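Technical note accompanying the year-one report. For the benefit of new consortium partners, we illustrate the data format agreed upon in the data management plan: each record pairs a sequence with a structure-token string. No post-processing was applied to the example shown here.
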Amino acid sequence: MPGPEQTQIIPTEFFEEGFDPQSMRPRKPTAAPRWVSVVGARPQFVKLSPFCRAITEHNRQNPASPIDHQILHTGQHYDRDLAGVFFDQMEIPTPNFNLGVGSGSAGTQLARMLARMESILAAIQPDWVIIYGDTNSTLAGALLAARLNIPLAHVEAGCRSGEICQPEEQNRIVADQLSRILFSASEHDAQNLCREGIATPNDPFQRRTALVGDILFDALLQNSLIAEQSGEEHLRSLSIRSKDYYLLTIHRAENTDDSGRLHSICKAASSLDLPVLFPVHPRTKKILQREGISLNGNIITIEPQGYLEMITVEKHARMILTDSGGLQKEAFYLQVPCITLREQTEWTETVNLGANQLVGASYDKILSAVQDPPVPNWHSHQPYGDGTAAKKIVAELAAIPRRIIIPQNFLPSELPNAMAKAAS
């Protein structure tokens, strides 16, 4: 957590329309390296948790050279109560900054992030900006760090679905191209970066990659036992029994914004042979109501779950039907068969090992996948590391010499030489 000497530039309230960006004071030189994590949505909170723990452990072991880690929450996830539950359950420090951008179109949301974040990063001049995954918050952090000449690190780099029209894919590509060090979850992801010319011997920007494993696996290992302590009670509260229901989640625009796909998925779920537990994302709920899609049959709708509660319902499901990238991996780690409601996935290893089936939104394919699943090969290979990704990331960043502050009129063509000089 930040020390008292820094509190004068750390507003913890949501920024309102009257917030004056010019009120931010420039950073004073500090002995401790300063890192800023940019997050904004639930999957990023999950990844942030083990990273914060790893920094705490690093500072405990290195009291003479602690890391000043600050959290910038964009407010992209606009359910403040649920976001607070995630922070409390996962013991994440209170964000130093919360931009409160809320909902809106992609352009509106991104514009708010850029406008409200710029003065903060310019003022505190961190040694590293750290971004996670593939959300609009990821993109905003990447664009501003690059524009302000602040070194950028991307956690979960190299992830590719091959769908260039997908917003998440666009965010990943831009974030990876602008990052100085890229942390990959799997060998496949690292190879994707190499194919794009990143961290190759001829890379003109001298970027680096590090294969560290999946930080989401860290989070699951750290929290699964805690979740299990109240697991049976939570299942009883939902009137379901272990392995006697399916779990459904839908939130990606490719499914929610296409009424035909959404109708097909819900129709298939309603036709399954067991109850279908459906934590309804707020955006999905609005669309279902607008389209007049009734959730009848075996579907049981519930409110979005906290992280620990979600682990419980994932672990005890007979099968998971989802369009979430994170849930595909969590299903794999929990050894629960997964059906992905998309035509492609970033996590191809789960498909290759028989743990995940790609069915899109086809009614017939969904029913067939549930009725005749493959036999997963859970133990043959662990493609996503050993659950120590956060520790490796902190070690990699801490080992890099602190940067030279680059002036605002710096020419992009001089970037490789300046990076080499800063690292020497």
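Partners are asked to follow this layout when depositing records. The chain has a mean pLDDT of 87.
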